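Structure ticket #2291
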Amino acid sequence: MSASINGGSSAGATGEQSGVAKDLVSQAADLASHVENVKEAAKGAVRARAARVREVDKTAKSARTRERILTAAGELIAENGNTDFQMAEVARRCGMSKGSLYYYYRDRDEIVQEIFSSGMDDFVSGLEGAVATARSSSEALYNLCVEFSNRVSQGGTVVLAVAAELVQGRGNILDTLEKRLYRIGRIVEVQLERAQAEGVVRSDVDCNTAASCVCGAFFFAAVHRMNAGGISDVDEFTTHLVDVLMRGVGCSDIREA
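Resolution: structure written out below.
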């Protein structure tokens, strides 16, 4: 009987050891599986990072190429005084094939549109900055004239190109310019309204109409100066703009004549 009990105990112990062994094997298998999952996750993260780096590099390279294209086209606009350049000319200046150029831009109008959009946005930002810190409407309007004169003197050929586009009335380019010109007109209108409230501008002036007239006068004055050889004296041009803006051109009210 004692032998039977001992035999039973031995069998039980063996069973327990077998169960423990199985648990250890199962845990080892789970651990190994977890390690493999971690490894795969790490590999996936590395691959994803590499893909992001390649994409960033590709995007940066594309941006640099686009910048080269826009620079080349801008040079042609400056040299010709208009936007009638050929895509082949741009490709030649960039040292690329015409086919490669069409990969980045569909046609000449798309290049011109991006150049004008960027240039006009920069111009609008300059005008906004000119009035942002002005302590009075008079100072703001004067700053607008100064900023306009400086911008025109620095980028006169682009002004002529813009004028050519407005005259030719090309649809998609005109839409691009129209939105920016509206923003410029609105900047002037707000400052005229401010000047009206401060008693600097007559209360009976329609600021919206006045702003349109001022912007048109300034723009075509710049075109005329550029066609006449450029703005040699920025300060003098600014003074003329301020004088027209604040005093007009009449000696008296024409309704009294």
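Closing remark: The chain has a mean pLDDT of 78.
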